[in-house]
Amino acid sequence: MLVKADAAIAYSSSVLIVTPATSHSFTPRFAGVGEKAFNLTCLPDGIMPYVHIDKSTGTLTVDSKISPEASGITGLQVPGLEEVSGGICQVASGKTALQILLLAPWTWPAIHYASTDLRVTVGESLQPVLAQGTQSPELTEEPEARVRPTRFAMACDTDKVFSFEFDELTGTGFLNGYRVLSMDLFTGALALAPDANLTKVFDGVLAAARSSASLQCEVLGYFEWQAGLAVPPISGEINISVLDDTCWKEVVAPPNSSWHRVQTPNLGNEAECRAACRASRACGIYSYRHGSCEFWSPCGLPAKGFCTGIPKAYEKIANCKESDTCLTVQDLQEPVWLYEGTFCPVGLSFQTVDQLEWAYQKSVITVEDSFYLQAPFETDFGQCPMGALWLRRANASWDFLNRTSNYLELYGERVACLSGAQGDLLQAVFDVGTQNITASEKTTDIGKGIQLALRSQSCMQPPSERKADGDEQGDEDDDKGSDSASASSDPSPILWDDPSTETPYDFSLHPCECFPMAWGAKSPVTSQSFQDVPAGSENQYVPASIPIVRGSFVCEQRYLLSPVQYDGSASMDDDACQALCRGTSSCAFYWFGHLGNVAQCRLYSDCDALVRVMGASGTLSALPPDAFLCHRADPEACWAISKRREFLHAQTDSLDSDPTGALVAPTPRPGKQPGNTKGRCLLASPPEASSWYPVGSSATHQ
After folding, report:
1. Which residue ranges does the record annotate as region Disordered (predicted)?
2. Suppose 128 and one of 14, 118, 189, 636 were both cysteines; which one would form an S-S bond, judging by CB atoms 3.0 to 4.6 Å apart?
3. Which of 625, 676, 670, 680 lies closest to 648, judged by CA?
4. Diameter over CA atoms, the chain
5. For residue range 605-650, what is the model confidence (pLDDT) as tens digits?
């Protein structure tokens, strides 16, 4: 074996790395004996003013004032230092020369996250928060590229009842053994996704209302470029709050109200009582007094003999999240009905440049009565402080909502600034359940004694068998469409009722009934019916139009309001035709379609019968009344079970309080429904005719 070594000049490494704002000297490990003077040449030559060499010893000195914008090189194979200031230098002495790589990386001065206070609910996840370097106070301008740490880690302090551990190999953080966050060890990106089973930890913690765990975390960034090179790590702080997914609201019982004691479990303390209520589907309200745990439910009227008053108790609000839970605004002293009601989360809006907050909407029939609760912008803090909420009117012309990304922009009038007694109003409502509100910057009187609270939740459908004995087709028939609607959607032979309420058969639903959204897409509610209900409407809304029949059918010529409206351009569509009808006071029906490859829009004042037009293809629609409607559970099954029999004049017990069986509630618009002969809607398309029903009728399931 032949080994050839050039020992004339040698430094500790062929890659010499200096840290910014610090002078560095590198003395040769071997410089030979009797060699000539040392010389230094570097490319690019932009770093030459900062690098010096002792001609007698070969010692290299790098000035501490080397500029972060000095010339640099790219495409390096040094991990973490692919693009930095520096250059390739040659140290020569006589005929001996050595090439070295001299690097002067300017690192992040600290670690910064766009938001230093993060809140996440158990069972949900937040988008990763990216780590970035803060601007150095010594620099007037941030250099284009600073060197990020090669590795990240974190450590967190928390309450004594909790313990936090961070695995530096996987980047996973654990709270009492349950996963709560994950960090990308190479980029520092932080993702919060607490394990749903973390609620077991909260069961042992009795908070005033909502349990939570607070983490005060320090994120560390290490620069591990070269073995033996000690570079001080940088750090940044971030606070994380992990919230329970169940909120608790103190029950405010109306005067002379009656309550039924559902269960009295034998438990040792209030924490165990609350944990049992959380786990029990039969518990909506609990109380703990004199060492006794009690579950309660309200009694109906008249009160039964076993009903009594209720002590201090707390109501359970399950799945409690800012993105899902609705709020109620009520006035306890001088109510102004215009501003009271239920506000549900509708979208995210900017509070600051880098922070989004949920906005809440009060949905009503008219735009004039629609309002929003929105966090103030950073520029509004002089009028409405951080943590408060603006009460804003809707602006139908300018308000923008992207339902795909849940992004919202509001431009309506600011009615008042609503603030609580302390801190973040929205956070306090979710933590405690209710908050008294102080209104400022008012443009009108909004009442006195206003209170913001979490909305109470409704019950879900209990487990029940929908099909009768012997019907083994079951769910298979549900997928066969309308041909099997009659067989597969027969009402359950068992009707479920809560005797403590006035609503008949609380937990049973007929295909012709309108369904509450809490029922979900469960039988007899079809998935299509569930999807057709606009988000946030709670199945009480006004559809843009009501399709009557599709194809070549139109209304009679005598009800045509004007010559056929047509336009050969691409701008003519169903929405434009609908707008023409809305703009005509006597228009109750419109038909949009094509005849001879030409788009047509026909407006009608009435429609007693349907007429076929050869070669026409379109949709006949009716304008909805100025009233809320709701969607039936299963329109096709409703037609097969009930409406078809009514059509044939069979004697059936209709679920509709309206004996006409009409599609919608009575309307002030002139005209009647298509085929409305002697008060009956006979010729409407069965699936469409059964789709909506007026809210407030007996067909609306409470």
Report:
1. 457-500, 653-702
2. 189
3. 680
4. 122
5. 999 889 999 889 999 999 887 777 888 888 888 877 766 556 555 4
